[in-house]
Design brief:
This protein is of the alpha/beta class. It folds into three domains: 107 residues, Arc Repressor Mutant, subunit A, CATH 1.10.10.10; 95 residues, D-Maltodextrin-Binding Protein, domain 2, CATH 3.40.190; 91 residues, 3-Layer(aba) Sandwich (D-Maltodextrin-Binding Protein, domain 2), CATH 3.40.190.10. The chain has 13 helices and twelve strands. The protein has a five-stranded mixed beta sheet. Helix 6 links the parallel strand 3 and strand 4. Helix 3 crosses helix 4 and helix 6 crosses helix 11.
Length: 313
Amino acid sequence: MPCLCYRKRWATDMSLDHTGEIKRLPSLRALYIFEAAARHLNLVRAAEEIGLTQGALSRHIQTLEKHLGVPVFVRTSRGLKFTEAGDVLWNHCQRAFRELRDGLGAISVSREPRTLHVAVARSYGTRVLSHKISNFLERYPWIDLVLDGHRYLAELDRGEADLAIRVGDGKWSDAKSEKIEDDPIFPVASPSLIAQFGTRDVRTLAEATTLLHFSERPYWEIWSREAGVSLPNKRRNMIFSETVMVLEAAEAGQGIAVSHRSLMREAIQSGRLLSLSETHVDSGIAYFFCATSAARRRDTVKRFRNWVFESVH
């Protein structure tokens, strides 16, 4: 009820017409100033960024609040805090400015097809990008994308690819790397396997079925040690040379597996895999976006980098 009352008051103060639309939008400059203040939640830093005095910026915010009929910030000794209305406006401004930047970029660059060569770890290309990449292509139809899973360690400083998505500790000499997300490991199994044995207990399942391993990483050992779960000494093991094969086998009910959250997210969301533990463990490695400083200045690389960090989580 409080939320409904708030919205009613806000709608009245914003002077809606009979269709529910705001009669007069704030100026783009007002929204631009609000966006800077919202991003920093600090008037001094926001003013410095856009070249205004703190007083002038504060007056612009007050004018916006008067236009909306509600406050968007609460001033505190530690900076700014969003009001409920300010939080709503901030969310919409982020999307609107992103769309505006994409639109301006689309008409200001050559529409001739341009190729972007991405060297990507096969596991990430198959389990993550393949489920989402159509969104990038719809947004940037003039970019011809090449996803190369055979040479994901292509030497970027020699131009063997425009960028790479690699798995490791982030320490590569040929490019700057950025961790895409924290990517812990944990065990999973198919719903059919759990139903067959009537339990999600890892040790019980390890005794009753098969542990699926990736040959290059001791994920089961890492997870069980950190989680404090002792695995049975006598157990069946199946070892695969590819992470994708491990997860395909798990989805088919062939055993239980441990892998990275990013590689299992879509399968868990769709119900093909179920988590066996709330204990998630840092394995010491993750997936990284990698590109040279020169490549990062190119329009296509910047667009792909921004899309990855916005879309794959």
